[in-house]
């Protein structure tokens, strides 16, 4: 699994009731990223 650092975060989403739902991550957090969902591609045998 890959990881990455969050560089920017928006304000969140508005729920059905109109209230702002906060984002679960903040700038600077390290997050886990799943492998690409498509076909693995090798370039120059790498």
UniProtKB/TrEMBL annotation:
Q: What is this protein called?
A: 10 kDa chaperonin-like
Q: What GO cellular-component annotations does this UniProt entry give?
A: mitochondrion
- Which SUPFAM superfamilies has this protein been placed in? GroES-like
Family label: Belongs to the GroES chaperonin family.
Q: Is Chaperone among this UniProt entry's keywords?
A: yes
Its keywords, alphabetically, are: Chaperone
Check the record and name the CDD domains matching this protein.
Answer: cpn10
The protein's matches in Gene3D superfamilies, at most eight in alphabetical order, are given as: GroES chaperonin
Name the InterPro entries on file: Chaperonin_GroES, Chaperonin_GroES_sf, GroES-like_sf
Work out whether the entry's keyword set contains Chaperone: yes
Q: Which domain of life is it from?
A: Eukaryota
GO MF annotations, alphabetized: ATP binding; metal ion binding; protein folding chaperone; protein-folding chaperone binding; unfolded protein binding
């Amino acid at each position: 699994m890959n990881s990455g650092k969050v560089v920017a975060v928006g304000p969140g989403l508005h729920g059905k009731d109109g209230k702002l739902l906060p984002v679960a991550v903040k700038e600077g957090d390290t997050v886990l990223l799943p492998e690409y969902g498509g076909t693995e591609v090798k370039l120059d045998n790498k």
